[in-house]
Amino acid sequence: EVQLVESGGGLVQPGGSLRLSCAASGFTFNNYPMDWVRQAPGKGPEWVSYIDNVGGNIHYADSVEGRFTISRDTAKNSLYLQMNSLTIEDTAVYYCARDMGSTSWHAFDVWGQGTVVTVSS
Amino acid sequence: EIVLTQSPATLSLSPGERATLSCRASQSVRGYLLWYQQKPGQAPRLLIYDTSNRATGIPARFSGSGSGTDFALTISSLEPEDFAVYYCQQRSSWPITFGGGTKVEIK
Questions:
Q1: CA separation for the pair B35, B46 (Å, rounded)
Q2: Are residues A45 and B55, on separate chains, in Cβ contact within 8 Å?
């Protein structure tokens, strides 16, 4: 079964840091680009970051550029998001999503269940 | 940044009826427009990619159409499990953006 499982969310104070992880299984992880997408309460999804299948091409949304870092570990079939200098506006459910790659770049065909990040004092 | 505007915000229909959802882009996205379905407490699910291609396992009652800046998702005959929120997304240019959603609710 193709599966993505996120972890690492939680409650953090403004200015703090968190590292999210996403464990992939059921498919050849290093064949696919991956993305992080977040969704604030009551809002639509917001794309956060993209990494290609070898980690050589990375993009960020302007709202997180310079604060968040995406990475991947092929040996561990895992995707990561290091989040620094968190603000209240970063409060959301964070999803990792599989990018369809050459079939349809930046179409997200597999999603995890999400991990909740709450930034509050 | 390409802004996607979805309408209507809410669509109240009965099972068996036809649903037509609209997504308008602030500039051309060529054919790179996608649709997702989201139910409460769940992640979005890809329905349609690149205007009209159904994703794996998506029933034929879901279809997509459009070009340039105007796109539509049609559900030919609503099933009980189709009542949900639908989002469009463009992959034409960075940053990738989503619309604000249309909620399809039971009338």
A1: 6
A2: no
Give the separation between CA A19 and CA A8, rounded to whole angstroms: 6
Segment 1-30 of chain A within 8 Å of chain B by CB: none
Instruction: Please list the residues that pair with B102 across neighbouring strands.
Output: B86
Q: How far is CA A95 from CA A11, A46, A65, B85, B103, in A?
A: 17, 10, 18, 17, 21
**Nearest chain A Cα distance for residue B12, angstroms:** 19
The span from the CA of B8 to the CA of A50, in Å, is 30
The tens place of each residue's pLDDT in chain A, 121 residues long, gives 999 999 999 999 999 999 999 999 999 999 999 999 999 999 999 999 999 999 889 999 999 999 999 999 999 999 999 999 999 999 999 999 999 988 888 999 999 999 999 999 9
Say which of A35, A62, A109 has its CB closest to residue B46.
A109
User: Exposed, middle or buried, B43 (CB in 10 Å: 0-12/13-18/19+)?
Assistant: buried
